[in-house]
Design a protein that fits this description.
The complex is a heterodimer of chains A (116) and B (441). Chain A is built from five helices and six strands. Chain A is of the alpha+beta class and 116 residues long. A two-stranded antiparallel ribbon of chain A has the order 1-6. Chain A starts with 15 loop residues before the first helix and ends in a 5-residue tail after the last strand. The chains are: A alpha+beta (116), B alpha/beta (441). The complex binds flavin-adenine dinucleotide (FAD) and iron/sulfur cluster (SF4) (2 copies).
Chain lengths: 116, 441
């Protein structure tokens, strides 16, 4: 019923017309509206094991993160732009391999919503 | 560090959100020395919702709240559902009557304004706010009883005989304490994201049919908004902005590899929505999880020296976007239990179990039990999000445009439209199981 984990994770496809109805938004335009106190010393997110990501065929973290923190580097490795994280928690529970290390930012750091 | 140097309070509340500040307010008012620990720069900076907040809950903790000038945007004077089809919109909202009272049942608000005010009410009666501080673990005595918290500040240990955990949906501390043995499942959480879009108040009033700035609209949006997958949109009118967003189940976002911001943009460009936000300026975008597992994901609510309240304990009624009221009331009940424990000088699990009894007497556990099957229902009946809104649009469209046709034919057309999408017996079955899931049968 729920999402399958690990190698059992099953990607699904929307009907073509629905897929085509989705615009292609440049997420950085949205990020400009957010305020952050960036921790230069400590990353609160990290990939536990890059080999696991290599095996992860569908890499859903690249899409479901609401602020596009996860990107595929030229070397094929997942890059983590933890500075833009809004601390929603989706990647902690949504990575099918539970391969993302996730902590709260240190006190005072991270996103600071102006409207919320 | 010797005993005398330890930082001691009568109670520690983790998180200055809705549950946390409510708990701190009730404790401090009773004369207890309360530390309210918040990881953000100030309360509210981390917090997020649609949204509308319910006055019945606020009043239970702060009866004279209206005199304290809460930073509300607008009262909810019109509420209901919008059914979005691919090319149309059916509105089913109520206004006036029960909704046009002062104070209103619910007020639209922004958390970055509301939460600091809410925490101030706790500070006013003596709660000690410790911002910019993340609680990372508990301090426990050899028997396992919680006797304080560790924070990420140097020499940041704080001691108290009772800790109320109001940490929100990312319940790392609740898990650390072993009160729940599993993390949230992607199929039990919705990722909700929205845009706050600036517009002049007069424009909002004109576009949404509101007579003045003291009227506001709060609607849930079903149908095309979530691409036919389980999910629900919302629109709230603030004073000088509108909040438009939606929540979708995280497992579906992952499986279909969808980008939240693309879906939101598609929704904002819908022919029925775009004119409402036209020429508006984006003020802020963001996202947050909603625990939708309800009763199924509720942790054990207490242990020796600690209790859990609010989103951290999955106290959300997803169907009604109700989480704020449950958080506030649970915070209050946990605080009352802590006050009793102080009177007895006993903070054992046995004494704190009264918290769960208090919750059972109130509406929270009753409601959550009742709605426990609803999330499951949506999982197994995706057509509820898709087929029915389309049908409603068609049906009403025909109803209002089919003059001159015999009524019988009209109804045949309408039923034809539905059964074309879904065999009638299945549709009836859907309605029955939907009703059953909502009634908790
Ligand atoms: C998009 C969206 C729309 C919603 N709309 C509505 C609505 O219209 N009406 C409604 O009633 N509900 C709505 N909800 C649900 C509602 O927002 C939540 O149920 C409610 O905010 C829960 O309050 P809380 O106090 O439990 O948690 P939160 O408000 O999340 O507060 C948790 C607090 O704890 C702090 N914290 C967490 N961990 C630590 C730590 N380790 N150390 C220190 N501090 C910590 C956080 O910074 C935060 O301040 C919505 C939710 C979302 C996401
Ligand atoms: S972080 Fe998780 S979802 Fe992303 S590529 Fe790695 S294993 Fe896959
Ligand atoms: S917590 Fe949310 S915002 Fe942060 S990286 Fe994970 S998915 Fe993205």
């Amino acid at each position: 019923m729920g999402m399958k984990y690990g190698d059992a994770f099953e990607a699904k496809e929307l009907p073509q017309d629905l897929k085509e109805s989705l615009p292609d938004v440049y997420v950085d335009d949205l990020l400009m509206t957010l305020k952050y106190f960036i921790d230069e010393e400590k990353a609160h997110l990290w990939i536990k094991d890059h080999d696991v990501c290599e095996r992860c065929e569908d890499k859903p973290c690249l899409t479901f993160c609401p602020v596009g923190v996860y990107k595929l580097g030229h070397d094929g490795r997942i890059q983590v732009a933890h500075q833009s994280c809004v601390e929603c928690g989706s990647c902690r529970v949504g990575c099918p391999y539970r391969n993302i290390g996730w902590e709260l930012p240190r006190g005072g750091f991270g996103v600071a919503y102006k409207f919320g | 560090m010797n005993n005398a140097e330890k930082i001691r309070f009568d109670a520690i509340v983790v998180g200055a959100g809705l549950a946390g500040s409510a708990a701190a307010m009730v404790l401090a008012r009773e004369g207890l020395n309360v530390a309210l620990v918040e990881r953000g720069q100030k309360p509210g900076g981390k917090n997020y919702f649609g949204g509308a907040i319910y006055t019945h809950a606020i009043a239970e903790v702060l009866p004279d709240f209206m005199e304290r000038r809460p930073p509300f945007e607008r009262p909810v004077t019109e509420a209901g559902f919008w059914f979005l089809a691919e090319d149309g919109l059916t509105r089913a909202t109520v206004q006036g009557g029960k909704l046009d009272v002062e104070p209103a049942d619910a007020y639209i608000t922004l958390r970055a304004d509301f939460d600091p005010w809410w925490a101030e009410q706790a500070q006013d009666v003596g709660a000690f706010l410790i911002p910019k501080t993340t609680v990372v673990d508990f301090i426990r005595d050899p028997a396992g009883q919680v006797i304080g918290v560790q924070t990420d500040r140097p020499q940041g240990d704080i001691y108290a005989p009772v800790v109320i955990i109001c940490e929100g949906v990312n319940n790392l501390l609740t898990q650390k304490l072993g009160l729940i043995d599993h993390d949230l499942e992607p199929s039990h959480v919705a990722l909700a994201f929205k845009q706050v879009i600036s517009l002049p108040a007069e424009t909002i009033n004109a576009r949404f049919g509101l007579p003045d700035n003291d009227h506001g609209l709060a609607v849930s949006v079903l149908g095309d908004v979530s691409l036919g997958l389980p999910g629900m949109g919302f629109v709230y009118t603030n004073k000088k902005s509108v909040s438009v967003g939606l929540g979708m189940m995280l497992d579906k976002l992952a499986e279909y590899r969808l980008r939240p911001y693309d879906i939101l943009q598609r929704y904002l460009e819908h022919p029925a929505i775009a004119p409402l936000v036209k020429d508006g300026q984006l003020l802020e975008y963001g996202g947050h999880l909603i625990p939708e597992g309800g009763y199924r994901d509720m942790p054990q609510l207490y242990t020796g020296g600690a209790m859990v309240a609010g989103d951290a304990a999955s106290m959300v009624n997803a169907l009604h976007w109700e989480g704020t009221n449950m958080a506030i009331i649970a915070g209050k009940l946990a605080a009352e239990t802590a006050i009793d424990a102080h009177e007895r000088g006993d903070f054992s699990a046995q004494t704190l179990s009264a918290y769960e009894s208090r919750l059972r007497e109130g509406f929270i556990l009753k409601d959550l039990k009742q709605y426990r099957n609803f999330a499951k229902f949506l999982e197994t009946h995706p057509e509820f999000m898709d087929v029915y809104p389309d049908f409603l649009n068609d049906a009403l469209g025909q109803f209002f445009s089919a003059y001159g046709k015999p009524k019988r034919e009209l109804f045949q057309n309408i039923f034809g439209a539905l059964t074309h999408r879904r065999p009638l017996f299945r549709a009836v079955g859907d309605m029955i199981s939907m009703t059953r899931s909502v009634m908790g049968l």
